[in-house]
Specification:
Helix content is 49%, strand content 10%. It is α/β, with parallel strands linked by helices. Strands 3-2-1-4-5-6-7-8 form an eight-stranded mixed beta sheet. α1 crosses α2, α10 crosses α11 and α13 packs across α15.
C-alpha cells in the first residue's frame, strides 16, 4: 500500500514508522524540508537502538528505512492510496493542505487527519469529495501506543470506517470507532483527570505531588495528572482542554484551568522546557508528597467519580460502544481498568453520591451527573 504522511514531527514520523514496518511504501512531506531530514535521522537512531536491544533485526531496520521516501511537494503524493495528515492543530492550515491535495491525488485516495480535537466533519466538508475523508487518531508515541481512534464524519462513506478499522488491525494496532464529537473518546473522557486535579490544587486542598501520589497509590495509575501533563506538555494539554470547552459551547464540565493557562504563558511546559509542575533540571530531586490517607481518599474519589461519570455519559450518547469505551481508556491513556467496570466495582451509587455532594458544595454545573448514572 502507498501511504503519504504530511508532517514530520514526532507524531508524523512515528506513524510513518508504523506504516513502513507493516510493509507500506511511505512518503513523508513537511513544509519545513529540514524537519523531514531531522526526523529521518532521528528515526534511524531509534531503529538502531531497537536493533541493539534485539527488538528488531538489522534486516528489518533496512527494510523499514527503504520503505520511507521524502516527498518534496504535495504533488509527490499523486499515487498514494491513503494520506494521513499530522500537522499543527489549526483548522485553516489543515483545510488549505487538503484542498490542495485534492488537485493531485486519485478519486479513490483516502484522506485523513490525525487531529486530536478538531471536528472531522468540519475538515471534510471543505473538500470536493468529503465522503473519502476520515479521522485516524494515533496516540503518542505512535509506534508504542496501541490505540487508534477511527472517526467517520457525518459525510464519510458508510463502509470507510470499517476498512480503516481493519487496516489498523493489520498494522498491529487496537482500533476503536468513535463518533465525531469534541475530544472523540479518550480526550473527552480523560478531561477530568487533569481538570479536577488542577481544581484541587488551585483550591489549596492538596499539592500536585499529593494528587499524583493519591492517584498512583489508590488508583494504580502509572502517572498522576501533574506528571502526565508535564510529559504531554502543559501547553498542549491546555490547548486540547480549551478546544473541547469551546466546541461543547462552553460547557462548565470542560472549563480550562487558570493555573494551567498561567503555566502555559510562563512557558513552564513540563519536561520539554525542563520545568513544569515539577523541576527536571539536572540534580533536582522531586518533592516527596506529605502523606495523608484521608486526603488521598478524598482526592481519589473526587477524580475517579468525575471520570466514571464522563464514561457513563459517553455510553449514554453512543459516542462508542461499551467495549470500545473501556478499550480506549486502557490502551490510549494506560488507565489500569475500564471506567465502566470500575464504576461497578466502586458502586455507581457511591459515584452518584460523591458527585451530588460536590454539586451541593460548589453549586456548579461542572458536577452534574449523567442521567444514565442514577439508573446504573
Amino acid at each position: 500500500m502507498k501511504v503519504g504522511i504530511i508532517g514530520a514531527g514526532t507524531m508524523g514520523i512515528g506513524i510513518a514508522q508504523v506504516a513502513a514496518t507493516n510493509g507500506c511504501k511511505v512518503w513523508v512531506y513537511d513544509a519545513n524540508a529540514k524537519q523531514v531530514e531531522t526526523a529521518t535521522v532521528g528515526l534511524e537512531k531509534t531503529l538502531t537502538k531497537l536493533v541493539d536491544k534485539q527488538k528488531i533485526s538489522a534486516e528489518k531496520m533496512t527494510e523499514i528505512l527503504a520503505n520511507i521516501s521524502i516527498a518534496t511537494e504535495l504533488k509527490d503524493f499523486k499515487d498514494c492510496e491513503l494520506i494521513i495528515e499530522a500537522i499543527i492543530e489549526n483548522k485553516e492550515i489543515k483545510t488549505k493542505v487538503f484542498t490542495e491535495l485534492e488537485n493531485y491525488v486519485s478519486e479513490s485516495c483516502v484522506l485523513s487527519s490525525n487531529t486530536s480535537s478538531i471536528s472531522i466533519t468540519s475538515l471534510g466538508a471543505e473538500l470536493k469529495k468529503p465522503e473519502r475523508f476520515i479521522g485516524i487518531h494515533f496516540f503518542n508515541p505512535a509506534p508504542l501506543m496501541p490505540l487508534v481512534e477511527v472517526i467517520p464524519s457525518l459525510l464519510t462513506e458508510k463502509t470507510l470506517a470499517e476498512k480503516i478499522y481493519n487496516l489498523m488491525k493489520e498494522w498491529g494496532k487496537i482500533p476503536v470507532i468513535a463518533k465525531d464529537i469534541p475530544g472523540f473518546i479518550v480526550n473527552r473522557i480523560a478531561r477530568p483527570y487533569y481538570g479536577e486535579g488542577l481544581r484541587i490544587v488551585e483550591e489549596n486542598i492538596a499539592t500536585p505531588e499529593q494528587v499524583d501520589e493519591a492517584m498512583k497509590t489508590l488508583g494504580n495509575f502509572k502517572m498522576g495528572p501533574f506528571e502526565l501533563m508535564d510529559l504531554i506538555g502543559v501547553d498542549v494539554n491546555f490547548a486540547v482542554t480549551t478546544t473541547v470547552y469551546k466546541d461543547y459551547f462552553y460547557d462548565p464540565k470542560y472549563k480550562p484551568s487558570l493555573l494551567q493557562q498561567r503555566m502555559s504563558e510562563a512557558k513552564l511546559h513540563g519536561r520539554k522546557t525542563g520545568k513544569g509542575f515539577y523541576d527536571y533540571s539536572e540534580g533536582t530531586e522531586k518533592p516527596i508528597a506529605q502523606k495523608d490517607d484521608a486526603l488521598y481518599q478524598q482526592i481519589f474519589l473526587r477524580i475517579i467519580s468525575m471520570l466514571i461519570n464522563e464514561a457513563v455519559e459517553a455510553k449514554r450518547l453512543g459516542v462508542a460502544n461499551d467495549e470500545d469505551i473501556e478499550l480506549a481508556m486502557q490502551k490510549g491513556v494506560n488507565y489500569p481498568k475500564g471506567l465502566l467496570n470500575w464504576g461497578k466495582e466502586i458502586g455507581y451509587a457511591k459515584i452518584s453520591e460523591t458527585l451530588q455532594d460536590l454539586y451541593g458544595e460548589y453549586q456548579e454545573e461542572r458536577y452534574r451527573q449523567s442521567p444514565l448514572l442514577r439508573k446504573m
